[in-house]
What does this fold into?
Amino acid sequence: MRATGAFALIDSLKRHGVKHLFGYPGGAILPIYDELYRAEAQGGIQHILVRHEQGAAHAADGYARATGEVGVCFGTSGPGATNLVTGIATAHMDSIPMVVITGQVSRAAIGSDAFQETDIFGITLPIVKHSYVVRSPQDMARTVAEAFYIASTGRPGPVLIDVPKDVGLEEFDYSPVEPGDIRLLGYKPTVKGNPRQIQQALSLIQAAQSPLLYVGGGAVTAGAHEELKVLAEWFEIPVTTTLMGKGAFDEYHPLALGMLGMHGTAYANFAVSECDLLIAVGARFDDRVTGKLDEFASRAKVIHIDIDPAEVGKNRAPEVPIVGSVRPVLLELLALARAAGATPSCTQEWLTRIQRWRQDYPLTVPCPMGQLSPQEVIVEIGKQAPDAYYATDVGQHQMWSAQFLKNGPRRWISSAGLGTMGFGLPAAMGAKVAVGEKPVICISGDASFQMNLQELATLAQYGINLKTVIINNFWQGMVRQWQEAFYGERYSHSNMEVGMPNFVKLAEAFGVKGMMVRDRTDLPGVIAEMLAHDGPVLVDAHVTRNENCYPMVAPGKSNAQMLGLAEQEKLERAAELIYCSNCGAKTIASHNFCPECGTKL
It folds into this structure.
């Protein structure tokens, strides 16, 4: 059949199961939007008009995180394309499958500095998994099929398709390419792990007396939740997760230690400092988890399971490297364990020790006189909406949410690697479009929220029933905390009070229900009213202005050296800390050498 390049693009998206996409039109992408107009009239696909292209990228990202499907967004050439860059980088850092489609000036004008021309292909090379410029409409269907295949297989990531305007307009003899028709020479992600290495991993697990599972986002991507649970219960192995790994393991389970790292639980950080075997599952040993890298799990042998061979051994050399998708690897490991009749070797002493740390260093919720603490607000939300999907922005509220909210698989949506302020509202919007009637709640900060607040208009236009709570302390909270702790309380440009809008009136101006809470006696009722309202709601929660997020591992310190624990004496006893006789530095007694001066202990 005769068709245009734009028709081939939209038809290919529909063939790949795309039901929703997010975008903003402009000159170079108008042929595609014109074809989209006809496709929407026929039904089966819906475009959500955002108010800024960055919102489109984050919405597609949130859609993908909530479903595991490929998120799709559109932007025009020039500034439309460059406005997508932060969202593309966010998805790239967190391995989120996305297809990003940008308009481009006509082929003959490329390289001439034409109106609204930018080299988005070149600009995004470091932050995409792959990218295309479609030079001929005959290539469109195959390009879309390849993009979806690459974005969703192996280690997922964003793929860019740049479409010159005249390619969208040109007619040709169109033959569709179905999703299963694609085979790419040279691209074959390793899914199954090496059997010999899996056998070695089992041997280490059976020999360990104080093992720990360290679980990242790769377990969520692979859908390995059940296999992880079986492994942990079988060998009685405690489980700690990264910010990306939240929800991969039941956070109510007795073996769950919560998040580790800079703002992780004290008991997770003590456990990783004292374990003799660390089983890294779909995690990448990033700096916010490890703290001082050479002291991270320094007593432990390491098993590292990851689908990306570039990550295995990048930051920490494992005794047993296993390249493969988490779920197939764990299935093979469990099959070997069954065949061998494997039994737990984890000592009761190890589990008892962890339980003591739990009791000595629990996460606490302050209740200051006459003020509302941010932790109280988050705990109340979690209490009233335990099964909601949660999206966050970035900062203190993100860490408190990670500490206090219990999440199931794919119900935690947060920018972990790039730490993108302004992510929360549009990502939550994308998740809500994806999951329909299921509740979605965005927890934001007053500073983060102001970066993409224009998407309130999108919520109002489409009646997207998203609930947003601003944890409002009138500061860039995490910046203020760092300035207090490490910069002599010099609060340089981190106070947001002057010029802050009235968020309730702002919401109402967009046609969204606005509410405020500042008293704890009103909090349960406000949250209940928010959840009951049929439509989008914004709640402005005024909280303690100077509350800090603890525990906290300072930069360059080991995970056992946490700020903000209640009693220093308990810290030293629990972590078995001693002072170096040579330089006076504090370190873990079980280490052989002082980390500061190298003196033998």
